[in-house]
Write a structure and sequence with these properties.
Blueprint (H helix, E strand, L loop, with lengths): L5 E5 L2 E5 L5 E5 H6 L4 H4 L1 E2 L5 E2 L12 E7 L3 E6 L7 E3 H6 L6
Antiparallel strand pairs: 1-2, 2-3, 4-5, 6-7, 7-8
């Protein structure tokens, strides 16, 4: 998956326009809850046990302050609560699109 054509903050959402013309709108607090980082999701050991992770379910009010592209395959969002360890691949963002999910 290549980089999208455009990533832009629109109010409390991140808008992504893909090169194929598809559009996606992600609420910022939804992105924070879906962060794929070990800090957020925890880590699974060889026995399938989850260790760590953020048990919060409510990320209301958390916004995206900034972002940076990671090569041509991903983006890292910098959230208002200081979280910035999640690397969102383009494929992962397509997978978690709240409209098609």
């Amino acid at each position: 998956m290549q980089q999208p054509r455009l990533v832009q903050a629109v109010g409390t959402e991140i808008a992504i326009i893909w090169k194929d013309g598809d559009e996606a709108f992600f609420p910022m607090d939804y992105l924070r809850a879906q962060s794929p980082s070990a800090e957020n999701q925890g880590e699974i050991d060889i026995l399938g046990q989850r260790h760590g992770g953020d048990d919060r379910e409510d990320f209301s009010g958390i916004t995206v302050n900034n972002w940076e592209f990671i090569g041509n395959y991903a983006i890292r969002f910098i959230f208002s609560d200081g979280h910035q360890t999640g690397i969102f691949s383009w494929d992962y963002l397509r997978k978690i699109n709240p409209v098609t999910k």
